[in-house]
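Handout, tutorial session.
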Amino acid sequence: MFRSFRNFNYRTWFLGGIISNVGGWMQATAQDWVVLTELTDNDATAMGVTMALQFGPPLLLVSLTGWVADRFDRRRVLLVTQSVLMMLALGVAALLLTGVMTLPLMFCFAAAFGVANAFDAPARQAFVSDMVSLEEMSNAVALNSASFNMARLVGPAVGGFLIVLIGTGWVFVANAVTFLAMIVALLLMRMHELRSRPKDRSTGGLAEGFRYVWGRPDLVVVFVMVFLIGAFGMNFPIFASTMALEFGKDADGYGLLSSVLAIGSLAGALLAARRDRARVRVLVLAAGGFGVASVVSASMPTYVTYAIVLVFVGFSTVSMLTTANGYVQTTTDPALRGRVLALYMAVIMGSTPIGAPIAGWIVDAFSARTAIVVGGIAGIVAFGIGAAWMLWSGRLHRSEGARFRLTLDETRPVSVVRAMDPEAFDEKVAATSPIRLPGTGKSGR
């Protein structure tokens, strides 16, 4: 399960990441609570707009961020983005502590966080392949998810407690400090142990990555499924905060719901780390589980029962996302991995600007439970799309070893082979160059 920890760079990265992620979840909890209760009067639509501004830049800047992740040293890119994110957190803290923060200013900072994360996310995802081998990559991606969700288990609960104890401004200060852990981890990397990666000097940019994905129906299906659930089902800040208010809870109650969600998420990530590779069928089943669990959670009558069902929602969500991330990374040509991952992150993060305002509007116009049901239906639709593709693709067939067992042919990494320039092919040389015959010491024509 922890085979990637044999690598010093990955161990260092994992430790720095979990500390930084705890701070990130603390800040996310504080930001949501500030918008919902301090800057507005429980306005879920404003919260949806904040999320849209924060997650919109990855979609708008995808052509640039993927190119940066493929062309430049990812470690240096991450040093820059992590430093910028730390400074932005300190800026928000200063405005909150001095009492001059307004909703428009928070909108501006949300957009700035989004721009920094737009460059950070694809570089961070692709950097995993620079630290570990292809055989370890699926395990490393799953452990990254486990780190993220271990932080999610602690961060929101600690953030909610600190909001009540010392206020939201100091939570942003605490998050700024945790960025130092990731920056130090990047500085401690053993440079000679980082894996060299193929350089793609073509001018195709994002268009080349898009053509690659479009030529892979399996990736198209994965992207569509992730988009549906990301846009309509994964608006957890809106769902959890409004449900906490419905049950009469404060910020600490909201933070506890986020941590409960992380219990299932962590279990899903650790289970994914045990698998030797990411498989599409796991993604499809997890999407269906997410849809069912979400619909069930919307019908829960009490805070405790709602929290219990959230464990299953978190488990299915992370099982789906970890499998999708691992599948995209391990089956994509290394020269295009940064651009393909930028497209993938744009689908995940960019779906929020579409779905979050809609979810916020549904909460305000109808109820939080209605918005959760809509997200559950999106999960069920995603399951249907994935199941239909498995049947249509012809990869699903009966196992030779078991009469009633079905197996799915999985995709393996395929390198991009570029067409040769006709002018570079010299027919005269090809016709006269000797061909050495193995084992004879002679050559023929």
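The second record follows below. Compare its token runs with those of the first.
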Amino acid sequence: MQLTSPRLRAALLAAASLTLVAAVLPPPKALGIGDPLFPELGNPGYDVLAYDLSFTYKDNRSPLDAVTVIDARAQEPLERINLDFTNGTVAEAEVNGEPARFESVAEDLVLTPARPVAAHMPLHIVIRHTSDPRGRSDGGWVVTDDGLAMANQADAAHRVFPCNDHPSDKAYFTFRITAPAGLTAVANGVPGALPARRAAAPTTWTYRTVHPMATELAQVSVGDSAVVRGTGPHGLPLRDVVPAADRQKLERWLKKTPGHIEWMEQRVGRYPFENYGVLIARAKTGFELETQTLSLFEHGLFTEEGYPEWYVESVMVHELAHQWFGDSVTPRAWSDLWLNEGHATWYEALYADGLGKYSLERRMREAYQRSDQWRAAGGPPAAPKPAAPGQKIGLFRPAVYDGAALILYALRQEIGAEAFDRVERSWVGEHRDAVAGTEDFVRLASREAGRDLGEFLKPWLYGSTTPPMPGHPEWSGAKGA
């Protein structure tokens, strides 16, 4: 029988090509880029430039229908393309407009394109799949009382969508979220054209980032939410997302954000993104999270008794500080996490000190007393031990919070407040929208101090015991107390 349809002929030829390619290639395997803490995380051979993510939400008990579109560039010849993805079902995949074979291996989705991709050539990948919020509780979708939110740190974005799930590969994002009538969908970045709502009909909401973002910082929330808009320093658009029923109760907290931003800008320079706000979710997570431009907070932090006002504010400043330290300047590897959490903890502590509630020196001395114990339990701040299997959040230990802030305190004691302030401003200014690691920080601090700080910082960063604190010889005897 002769084939008369060019499209049918092309489809059959593509399928035949896939079968032939699969026959000569070895079995697919999970790959990684060798991150010290997550060796199978990330994938070699390409650089992602942009994600376009579409989600159709029904309820928080059902898988979402999703389409992930990835634009990337091959860095080397690729016969196969590995993506990180799990907790969803793939229906079909395309690479550069042609059907691609797909297989799941461990937590990788391995694509075999119809023809090999040459080095330096563009990659356009389309994957139709589901995204399942049920089951695993180690990151990804967070089920809320009225919908869903995301918490992708440390390596959980691939539980939501196929991606190169490592912070070193930042990209631009577009989100298209379809939700039932009566619900509101939000995501990182700025909204597209306002959705045209129709009674009893689903609505599609579109957002895009203006700056590149790591996969672990992506945020999508669907719920019965109110979007509260305001203005921050220099006309910065503010957008807070809160449970609609609690809007009035929460507004007194939302009004504090402009002052927090102004306080941070006085210390490190202009806010680095297109907008900012807090996302308050009706869920118990046990943490708050610095998702880019829209920080995730537990509802209970603002409504439950027992949290002093100064403490709540300092936590808000912690997540805001991450917009500079961790979001704009993103860690090169997960062992550089101390640069995120140490700086956020530093500004949290500095803010509390300014309120006269918990002095910085007291907090640092208390951290110093516990530092050796933290290092023994979890490793030094810049070389943390891997988290236990199935407990990825276990990476977030005291050593990378107060233990890392203690390094910054020691640095300021050693080089003086003026040079330290130059280090902070230069760090976020020179590495804006980029990735940087511990060695980069040591080099920059040495430059701003006018001398090599490598020998001084090395034991603070990597030592099994805590060095003497400059300017505080009396602290030495307190260690281990």
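Points raised in discussion: The mean pLDDT is 92.
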